[in-house]
Design brief:
With 299 residues, the chain is mainly alpha-helical. It has helices spanning 77-101, 109-132, 138-162, 167-187, 195-222, 232-262, 269-296; strands at residues 12-16, 19-23, 58-60, 67-69. Helix content is 61%, strand content 5%. The two termini are 40 Å apart. Helix 2 (109-132) runs antiparallel to helix 3 (138-162).
Length: 299
């Protein structure tokens, strides 16, 4: 099964011809691919199969089939943290550079907007290419992060200049708060990623994106704010829904990382974990920025 945000095609840890890759992820909310469901919820119990049984970088415990590190090339939480820091750092650096080098004053606003929108399109293409690749490509992932950062820098500067000064800082702090809150809730098992949870999140996200696409079409061809989903009371409601969906995607990301580490995914998979986490955090930041802009803007 696939999860992503905003493309909905980023792949999850699974077994794929003996290679543990971000492929379809039927394990979200249940045992990983190749495991049997057990009443006690332990995928290692009663001889459950290990989805990374053929992973050349891990061996199996003779009794439970749990992976053990045979060599130092399996994914660890340190790998995920370091790759995520690199990817998010690239977003932040390019966003700051765009903010400083692409002015949004009336004389340069059109040019800066053009570069920002062009960067967003390039970032989307790179993310789609990576989403359909079987193996992670650090160049594609960092390229996505760089172009996404340019877009975020331009749009953030414009919002701060023309709508509400200081809203960017609030959006960043809000994004960090959502991340910390979901991480704590996931570690405390207040959030349990089940198949039902996954299905609900994906259905809600698909409906959300379709509504936003329809609203955009009405705005382009009819003028104004389309159906009104991006401003006023409806805009506030949809902003809150967008942030909640982002929080749900974070829980799915944490589940994927946990499964990958548990079952001995190859170290290179940590790049895909970083890719997914970055996409989700960008989603949350943009929704937070839009929501705060509505709350603090003149309209």
């Amino acid at each position: 099964m696939r999860s992503s945000n905003p493309v909905f095609s980023r792949r999850g840890f699974s077994r794929d011809n003996g290679y543990a890759g971000f492929g379809a992820q039927p394990q979200a909310g249940g045992p990983a691919v190749g495991t049997a469901q057990h009443p006690n919820g332990n995928p290692f119990a009663a001889g459950a199969a290990n989805p990374y049984a053929t992973n050349p970088y891990a061996t199996q415990d003779a009794q439970f089939g749990a992976p053990q590190q045979a060599r130092g090339n399996v994914m660890t939480i340190d790998d995920v943290v370091s790759r995520t820091a690199i990817t998010l750092g690239t977003v932040v650096v390019t966003a700051i550079a765009a903010w400083l080098l692409l002015p949004v004053d009336p004389a340069n606003l059109g040019k800066s907007y053009g570069i920002g929108i062009g960067s967003a399109l390039v970032a989307m293409v790179l993310s789609l290419i990576q989403s359909f690749k079987r193996k992670p490509s650090p160049a594609l992932i960092l390229g996505y992060a760089a172009f996404e950062g340019v877009f975020l820098g331009v749009i953030s500067a414009a919002v701060s200049t023309y709508i509400a000064d200081g809203v960017v800082t609030q959006a960043v702090l809000g994004t960090m708060a959502v991340f910390a809150g979901v991480l704590i809730a996931y570690k405390m098992r207040w959030i349990r990623v089940t198949r039902r949870f996954y299905g609900f999140v994906m259905a809600a996200a698909l409906g959300f994106v379709l509504l936003m696409a329809v609203n955009m079409l009405f705005a382009v061809f009819g003028g104004g704010d389309g159906l009104g989903f991006r401003s006023g009371g409806l805009g506030i409601v949809f902003g809150i829904v967008g942030i909640i969906l982002g929080a749900c995607f974070l829980a799915l990301d944490f589940k994927q990382v946990e499964d990958g580490i548990t079952y001995g995914a190859p170290r290179e998979e940590s790049w895909l974990a970083a890719f997914g986490l970055t996409m989700t955090l960008v989603w949350i930041y943009l929704e937070a920025l839009r929501l705060l802009s509505i709350l603090q803007g003149d309209d």
